[in-house]
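Dear colleague,

Thank you for sharing your sequence with our group. We've completed the structure prediction you requested, and as agreed, I am returning the results in plain text so they can be pasted directly into your records. Please verify that the sequence below matches your submission; if there's any discrepancy, let me know and we will rerun it promptly.
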Amino acid sequence: MIPLRDSQPSRKVPVVTILLIALNLLIFLYQSTLTEWELVLFFHRFAFTPSGFFASISNRQIYWPILTSMFLHGGLEHLIGNMWILWLFGDNVEDHLHPIQYLLFYIGTGFVAIMAHTLSMPHSDVFTVGASGAIAGVMGAYLILYPKARVLTLVPFMPFFMNIPAFIYLIIWVVLQIFSGLFQSGGGIAWWAHVAGFLAGMLICIRGRKRRRDETTTRTP
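Please find the predicted structure tokens below.
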């Protein structure tokens, strides 16, 4: 199912979301200028691998690819898919969290996602790149914050359009990630990173909403 637009209007310009998309696009444009060998070297330096992470931990070194890999993509389709989802759901989550909190949330859920992938495949030396884990966190947050919004969705194998509640679309999405993680081996997709990022986004926003509600109740005379 391909989401085309949502019904939740943005109250202000989503500056951080736009900057994140721009940064991903600029890095991909740079990647496209590299030769095949240069791209391999570039990924060796900036892409994440679980084996590389554990080697750095053993050597007491900072493993920067845990951050830089979130801004790399393996191809144009990968990039467009991620950036479209980020644009669709990110503006409203940024509305709720505000720019700095939103940026920290994005990086934090991306970190949780990549750690889940690392634990699921601790010996892998396959490059892991992409913003999918952090974007899954944004989707999880959207489920908690705007469950009654509606998402216009294209079902390509029919094909037809459906205008469905956001909570239905997002629950179907995460269930598909779980089933794929359980029953699909390989394929080059970090399914458990998607699931972990999504759940992290949900939990952070549930706690945030509860804390704000408690603060409001405490201030009420």
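Summary note from our side: The chain has one domain: 2-219.

Kind regards,
the structure core
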